[in-house]
Structures are given as structure tokens and as C-alpha cells.
Structures
1.
Amino acid sequence: MDTEAALLTLSALSQSTRLEIFRLLVRHEPDGLPAGEIARQLALPQNTISVHLATLTRAGLLTSQRHSRQIVYRVSLPCLRELMLFLVKDCCAGSPDLCTPLVADLSACCSNPETCS
């Protein structure tokens, strides 16, 4: 990930509703949620959710898949991984022991490493 891609991704997350949507979908990995369920859980109108989902999808943070009449949204774990790696790429000035707590916290968030790659 380069600086421009990171800025696009971070700007998509810099709005409170979009950040809420993203965090909700992170909690529902790997199954994702239909757009209507996202709207219901966040108590927001469907058209409002649609605009935010489109922004997050354009930034590469979400993927969508049609299931019959529903569109199910999921977090793009590769994009999230790239963003996290970009943010910590030059971490700790060559002292890996300082990064150990950060790496441990990030590792603990994903109980199934196969779904986090």
C-alpha cells in the first residue's frame, strides 16, 4: 500500500457512520451482513447506508456479493491487513521488542489465521 491508497482508505473511515459500519462488519466476519441488516442494526435509513457502503467499497475496505435479492457486505481483510502493515511498517526504529505487544494484540484479534490473510 502506498501513501495515496492509505489516505483514500483512512479518509473513508474518517466519518463516524462509515467507521461504525466497518466495525460492525469486522465483528461479523467471515459471514458479513446484508445491507438491510446493517441499516437495522445501526438504526439508519437504507439510502444513507447505501451511500456509506459505496464509499467504503470504493476505498477497497468492503467487498459485496449478491445472494438472491440481498447484497451481503464483508470486510476486505487483505485491505485491512495492508493498511495495518502500512501504518506500522517503520515501527519501533529497529527494536522489535517494542513491537511485541502490538503484534500480540493484532494477532489475538483473529482466532483463525486462515481468514485473516
2.
Amino acid sequence: MQKESSGGRWWNQPRTVWAVAFAATVSFMGIGLVDPILPAISEELQATPTETSLLFTSYLFITAIAMFFSSWVSGRLGARNTLLLSLAVVVAFSLASGLAPSVPWIIAFRALWGLGNALFISTALSTIISESRDADGAIILYEASIGVGMALGPLAGGLLGTLSWRAPFIGTAVLMAGAFVAILLLLQKHAVVKTRTPLFAAFTGLARLPLLSFALVALFYNMAFFVVLAWSPYPLGFNAMGIGLTFFGWGLGLALTSVLAAPALTARFRRTTVIAAGLASLLAVLVLAALFVESAPALVVLIIAAGLILGVMNTVLTESSMAATDLPRPVASSAYSGLRFLGGAVAPPVASAAGAAFGASAPYLYGAGALVVALALFALLYHRLCVVDGAHQEDALEEAEALIGNAD
């Protein structure tokens, strides 16, 4: 597959791309936003950690299911209208979450929030790629937006959570309203172009074995991702601000490695090599977290270390899944993201239940087990996954030829 080149400058993008990236940042703030306030919600609304973990699960499960059909929706409404609709849904139900009287109501509103988020995430990725000057650079910018959102979400949650557990939800509604205005003003009308995408196109896309292979690896990888995110606030034992600062460091590391480390590593090594090393490194971090779960300082260091690894993994897995198929970007994004987020939906309640039954280290061991499965799938499916190494080598050859041409 060929790509356009912008000289490797991921930041050299049109303002429409930056508008969508800003909206993506705010959207992903919504995932980490609840982290610092989980203990407060448990205490004030008399809910167990397993019950509050459903704030992640309802959100991510509906996100995952809806993603399989998001390319069909965007095909009929057009990218611009789909983004505006999705942001309007998020504004409505993040505000409703902040006004909810009990945990079951928050869980329900988070599910509907996830519906809006699903439409946004897959459409945002395909829009950023289609509007960009460089596909790989656009993916780096997209993953950086995710990282910044993941970093700012817990920080905002910690700051606003000192006022009330309701304040972070209401604050998110305000920020998403700002993202709605940015898309409305900056994303041009030509992004309304409609296509005839079949209803089950994403499921058909998973019949492409390289794409399915990356999605399966990402499913189990995402379980480990959300073990770190959803369980860690409890063994840390910090207040909302302490949890927020810890996960700000985690998200900042994720953002930095998405932008800086991931491109540097894939320029030097094969994509599959980077993925295998990332899975093994994250496995080691989770095993150490299980061993040192009673030491808050050690756990803080390990959470931030996990963020550094996750930033690389998110970028390289997304790049690889997009490079593994010639499907239209919205279809490939829907298929990959839908399966990936199912892993995130499963992990929080399973981890919390394991923690309640077997102790605070058990969720990290569950996450480590998911990574063992991911590594086993990686080895089993390697002959499908390595197709992106060929694409990587072709890209490197094209860039070398371009440099030689410029020198001449």
C-alpha cells in the first residue's frame, strides 16, 4: 500500500485535521475522567468496586458493539454530520451522568454516552486519515490526541472531583460542547460526502485474516490496558487529586511515546518486532504490579511505566491494522476498533471481581494472563501479521528514494 508523504512531519496537517484531533482529545478525556472519582462514587452512593467498574463496562461494551455499525452510519450521514451527531449525544449523556441519582442510572447514561463515543472514534480516525497530508502522520496525531485526552481526563477528574463526583461529568459536557462547535466551524461541508456502506461491512471486513489477526491481539491487549486504568485507583489508596495526578503521569507518558517513541521504533525495527516487545514489556510490568501492589510508590512508578509502553502499542497496532488491509478506512476502523474495545469492556468487572475474591494483586495477574494469550495469538498468527512488515519495508524504500531524489 502506498502512502503520501509530508516529510514525516505529523504536525503538518490542515486545520480540519486539528479540529478533529481536538475533539478526539476531549472525547478520550471521558474514559479516564472517572478514575479519580471511583472511590468517591463507591463511598457516597454505597456501591462496591465491582459495581462502579460497570461505569467502564457499560460505556465500552456499547462503544464496541456500536463501532461495528459506525461505518454504515457515517456512510449515510457523511463524516461531518456523524461527528456532530456523536458529540451531541456525548454532551447530553455526560451531563445526564453528572445529574444521576444513583449508580445504576450512571451506568445506563454511560452506556448511551458510549454510543456517541463509538460513532465519534471510528469516524474521527477515518476522517483524520482522509483529510491529512500523510496517513502515518495522521495516525500518530490521532494516537497523540488519545494520549493527551487520557492524561488530561484523570487530571480534570481529580481537580473537579475535589468539588464533587458530579463535577467531572458536567465539565466533560461543557468541553464536548466546545468540540462540537470546533467541528461545526472548521470541518468543511465536503466531509458530508455519503457512501453506500453495507450494514454488516465491519463483520465482513473481519473476514480479512490479517485485519482479524491484529484485532484479536488488540482485544486481549486491551484487557490489560483497562485493568491498569480501572483497577489501580483502589490499591493506590489516594484521594481524587492523588489518583488524578498519578494517571496524568500515565497519560502523559502514553502521549509522548505515541508521538516520539513509536515512529522512532518502527523506523528502526519491524512493526511486528515492536508489538511483540511491547506485549512482553507490559506483561513484565503487570507481574511486578501484582508483586508490589501494597507499595503505593512502586505502583505509581509501574502505572507510569505502563503508560509509556501503551503509547507505543496503541500507535503501532493502529498503524498495522490500517496497513493490513485495502478496505475503506471507515470499515477497517470500525472492525478493528469494535473488537478491540470488547476487551476493554470485559476487563473492569472481571478484574474487580478477582480483586474482591482473591486480593488486590489478582486483577494484575488477570491482565498478565490476557497478555500471555495475546502473545500466544501473536505467535500463532504471525504469518498473517507480518504482512505489515512488507508494507513497512516498501514505505522505507519510498522514503529513501525520495531523499535521494531531493539530494539530486
